[in-house]
Amino acid sequence: MNVNNTLENSVSIIKGIGEETESQLASMGIFTVLDLLEHFPYRFDDYRLRDLQDVEHDEKVTVEGKVQSEPSLVFYNRKRSRLTIHLLVGKNLIKVFFFNQPYLKKKISISDTITVSGKWDRHRGTITAQELKIGPYQKNADFEPVYTVRGSLTVKSLRKFIRLAFQSYGNQINENLPEDLIKKYKLLPRRDAMKMMHFPITQEDVKQARRRFVYEEFLFFQLKMQALRKFEREHSGGISQHYDLNKLRAFFDLLPFPLTNAQKRVINEICADLKSPYRMNRLLQGDVGSGKTVVAAVALFASWTAGFQGALMVPTEILAEQHAVSLQNMLGQAGLNIELLTSSIKGKKREGLLERLRKGEIHVLVGTHALIQDDVHFNKLGLVITDEQHRFGVEQRRVLREKGVTPDVLFMTATPIPRTLAITAFGEMDVSVIDEMPAGRKRIETYWVKNEMLEKVLRFVEKELIKERQAYIICPLIEESEKLDLQNAIDVYQMLTDYYYDKFKVGLMHGRLHPAEKENVMKAFSDNDIQILVSTTVVEVGVNVPNATIMVIYDAERFGLSQLHQLRGRVGRGQDQSYCFLLANPKTDVGKERMKIMIETNDGFVLSEKDLELRGPGDFFGKKQSGLPEFKVADMVHDYRALEVARNDAAQLINQKDFWHDQKYHYLRKYLEESGVMDGEKLD
Coil, helix or strand for 471? Predict the structure, then answer.
């Protein structure tokens, strides 16, 4: 094939694309002819004539009608104007507005038949016109693609360039999926799908073309994830921990409460990983209060019966202290020695602790990142548990490997992650879910309260505090302005200090405090030296204060559902009834919907799915998201069934021997090599 006439050519080879246009296309990530053809529309404008009764409010619609009145023109100033006509569409008499197009007054006459496309206001019976054609409706194509563009580049120009590219190079578009998968799912060939994506005639064209590319994108992404899993399992070492099942059963009898079925299921999954010769790489999800710590204790105990030490890493010292106490209560009675190591433990005490760790006298070490410092050496480390996945990543594992250690790793998170995101963001990991709450746990009563009702909320808080309970007051974290956030928290702190005067002690915590200061404030709250803690969202994942029964969240509409749920989960940890007040005057429908959902359910997984629907995958993990892929066509929320199908197919392909040498999988293997997963090595 002539290298000067291929899809890998610069887009400048397309007629009409000069230096300026080439530069604009480059800013959009379009460098080659193939890049141009793979720049898919983000929406399709529907130009079918439809009955207005079937059109939703604010939806774009195309109608044909007869003008019933002379156009009426109103000027607001020299540049702004509105032209109004009455149009008979079928039996409906509607108004059509044309903004800032006064010249149309001379073009439209009474009794003219015109075709108008625009936004339909169902309540007022009006259309705000975006396009006009004088004359009856003429059908060329039902759907017209709309593309993202930059600078002076127009959608019309881009559409022309894509048409020219397809005419000249379309016959070079190769199929990259094996024929058996195309037949299995009745997918369009790649060239046909690309043609229908850019030049659809009917809605079915769009549907089938999109279906093809959704599956393709998901399959290629999941191939990468599954290859990473396979490589991790087969090339990262690992230890087989043959735990004592009889001792494990006896340990269950020592627990103060029976395990839930979900906890038992997850424990079985973890124990299977321990026994396996491959290194565990598992994410454990569990809602607030679902009993993850008990599962962690069982895993550490099982590893100990196999002759190994364990480590539990948490983000803060006060949390480490609480976990150490919890594990001591559960594991200490079974004969395990639990110790705490944090950066504040120094001198002879630290030296003695590290010596006992080296000798294997300490069975479980709990702490912060102090656990992976250079001078910390385990005798026989078998299991590392961390409660925040993103804080124990590749670098930390590398530190352990360099010490000659390849322990099993269990990541715990209290943030329920929707299944669609879990298998995408954490596709290279196994995922376990505790989806059942222990019996007898009281539901947190949640109320949506308008801002002007704050006084009533504060009186209710006072009644609870008189009963010797405690309260969190949360102020929103505003990313654009730390200063504004800090001032907000200080204002509320000052107001509450004045309001309650000397009845109750009010504390303040925010992101600008030094870590040691935060620890001191949280410890004072934990010890009930502070009855009211005013804080930004730094308490979202924090300590266990069973005596805290009230959560008040200012400007609650500014938070996502998952974050609101995490904040609410700071209370409800003791025997007393707990309450959550959402102070909010939401202006948007989405904001109101969030408040209603929070009142209706306490289930973190239900909330996480709703949050994903309302916010989309890009915002679920926040703006600094954890490496979520950007798909050109696929949508993780709406196409989740295709995502699961692609995941299963990818796992099957990666683990079948002919995948690594059969010619029909050539393009899939090439993708893995180009994405750097294989580093030129086969995984078979």
Answer: strand
